[in-house]
């Protein structure tokens, strides 16, 4: 199967239904959270997340219904790039440029952190465009 056709799936529960969209709660867990020794380990991580899913057939679902939320894997990779990798690269690049131009280290470090402010403000203003790019889909879990 082509990489662009692979999907990321998570089980979820419908918590709200709107006209043509759903709010679904998914349980995001790290690999170690399902480990039998998680009670003795502080690295275990489970977190509830709420995602909004556009679905013209939203009226066919009911609150509390078990569903599967999915999105294309390439979109997940793109989200990680914009959320983590690009900001990290901006910080490192800012730090390198300022230190190579003999700016004091405290000022360079603070500037490297502050470069994230306009970046995340830009992401905030582009949120409507990003919402159209990062689309989730939902399908009911069959109870056979």
Describe the protein in words.
Helices cover 38% and strands 28% of the residues. The chain has one domain (3-35, 44-140). It is elongated. Helix 1 (73-100) runs antiparallel to helix 2. It has helices at residues 73-100, 105-114, 116-125, 127-133; strands at 7-17, 21-29, 46-54, 66-72, 137-140.
Give the overall shape, derived from the CA principal axes: elongated
Strand content: 25-35%
Q: Which strand order do you get reading across the main beta sheet?
A: 3-2-1-4-5
The tally of helices reads: 4
Whole-angstrom Rg: 20 Å
What structural class do helix, strand and pairing data support?
alpha+beta
Whole-number total of structural domains: 1
Q: Major sheet: size, sense and barrel closure?
A: 5 strands, antiparallel
N-to-C SSE string, H for helix and E for strand: EEEEHHHHE
Helicity level: 25-40%
Mean pLDDT: 83
Low-pLDDT runs of 5+ residues are: none
Number of strands: 5
- Terminal Cα span: 27 Å
Question: What's the quick description here?
Answer:
The protein contains four helices and five strands, in the order ββββααααβ. α1 (73-100) packs antiparallel against α2 (105-114).
């Amino acid at each position: 199967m082509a990489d662009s056709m692979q999907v990321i799936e998570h089980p979820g529960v419908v918590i709200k239904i709107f006209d043509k969209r759903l709010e679904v709660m998914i349980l995001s867990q790290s690999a170690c959270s399902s480990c039998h020794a998680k009670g003795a380990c502080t690295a275990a991580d489970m977190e509830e997340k709420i995602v909004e899913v556009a679905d013209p057939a939203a009226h066919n679902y009911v609150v509390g219904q078990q569903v599967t939320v999915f999105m294309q894997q390439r979109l997940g990779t793109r989200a990680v790039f914009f959320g983590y990798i690009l900001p990290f690269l901006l910080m490192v690049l800012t730090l390198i440029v300022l230190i190579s131009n003999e700016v004091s280290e405290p000022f360079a470090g603070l500037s490297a952190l502050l470069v994230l402010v306009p970046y995340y403000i830009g992401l905030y203003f582009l949120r409507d465009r990003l919402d159209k790019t990062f689309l989730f889909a939902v399908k009911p879990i069959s109870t056979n």
